[in-house]
Structure formats: structure tokens, C-alpha cells
Amino acid sequence: MIELLNIDCMEYMKGLDDNVFDLCITSPPYNLGDTHHTGQKRKKHYPDNMPENKYQESQILLLNELRRVIKPEGSLIYNHKNRIRSGLTISPLTWIFNSNWHLKQEIVWRNKGQNFDKIRAFPMTERFYWLANSDVKMNNISSLKDCMLESDWQPEGTSKAHGRSFPLKMVVQFMSCFKGRLKMFDPYLGSGTCAIAAHYGGFDFVGCELDSGYFKAAQERFNKETAQIDIFQ
Prior knowledge:
Radius of gyration: 17 Å
CATH class: Alpha Beta
Number of helices: 6
Number of domains: 1
CATH topology: Rossmann fold
Strand content: 25-35%
Strand order of the largest sheet: 1-12-11-2-5-9-8-10
Mean pLDDT: 88
CATH architecture: 3-Layer(aba) Sandwich
Order of helices and strands: EHEEEHEEEHEEEHEHEH
Distance between the termini: 17 Å
Structural class: alpha/beta
Largest sheet: 8 strands, mixed
Number of strands: 12
Helix content: 25-40%
């Protein structure tokens, strides 16, 4: 069963029992400011400018609540990036290490999300943090590497309604590394890629999206793309 919910993820999780999901693959807003740029294109997709300390506190709360609703043998794939604030780099590890998770591995994705700012080396990568209990193992049948190139995972979505989309191949590859018929969760549904991947893999899925415009766009994309998938199965 696939459930797409137009709701705040924290409010949704508050109503859940412990140990509900097997796998979560998600990417929160990065807190880049109201306006930022990728390459030489300035973007203003949605308000994303919390005070940094409040943002980090919110991410710790999110991670800890995910830790509660994900089974002890489950995993969280948490996508984020190193950001520049006041001229200094802030790593997501700053708050990940203050959460209740164990860091299993950090995977670098060179996604060409470049920022052509000549006062520093051009940042062109994001991170995927595999978080789990220390004894949880991955079955790496997709031959994931700890450095994935844009040729491995082609960036998608910069011209679409949401503006930032996971590559479908990336989600499918992560899903394949964990055994069983999974129940998946994405607290930041965004463009709906994880929902499409779950449908493709025959997994149960719940996705939350607070923004009603993005939620509608994700619903429409899910209905269109899964209908095409179903025709050819």
C-alpha cells in the first residue's frame, strides 16, 4: 500500500507506535536561505532560512523521532550536504553525531550541483549518510561505492515543479541493499521519487509533504509514472 499524506512529518510520527518502518530514504530542506544558486542560476523554491541553531535542533528532533519509528534492524539513508554559513563550512555530521543514530557509512555523490563562487573551491557534492544500529548490515548487490558520480546517479528535477529530485535509480539501488518486503517512509516526500520507487519494488510506503503545492505535484507525478509502470509489467 502506498500512502501520500499532506501533513507535517513530525505531527504524523507522533501518532505512530515504535518500530513501524524498515527503511527511510529522505532529504530534508537544507536551510540554504530564501534564495540560493546552483551554478549560475539563482533559485527561490521555498522559504528555507531558519536560524542555524534552530535548524540543527529541528534536525536532531527529526532524526531521533525517525530512530523511534524505524525498527531496530532498519536503516535510514539521510541525504544532506556541507553548507557555507558566515564563510564557514557546516557539516551535517555536526547534528548527526548529536542524535541517537550510529553512522554506518558516508557516501559522497558528485552531482554537478556546483556553486561557481571563486572565493573557495567549487562545492560539487552532496552526502548520503547510512544510519543504523551498529550490527545492521547492507547487502550491496547494487555495487554501491562510497563515491558515486553523476554518471552513476544522473541529477534530475531542476526544471520541474519541485526543483530538487532524487534520481530514481539512486533510490532503487539503496532499496535493493536491504532484504525483505520493506515498509518504507519518506518524511519529506518532495517530488515523490521514493513513492514511485516503492511502487516499482512492490513495497509498502508512507510519504509526508507539508507544502500543498509540492504535494499536489508529487501526487500527479506518482499517478502518471506508476500508471506507465503498470502498463508494462
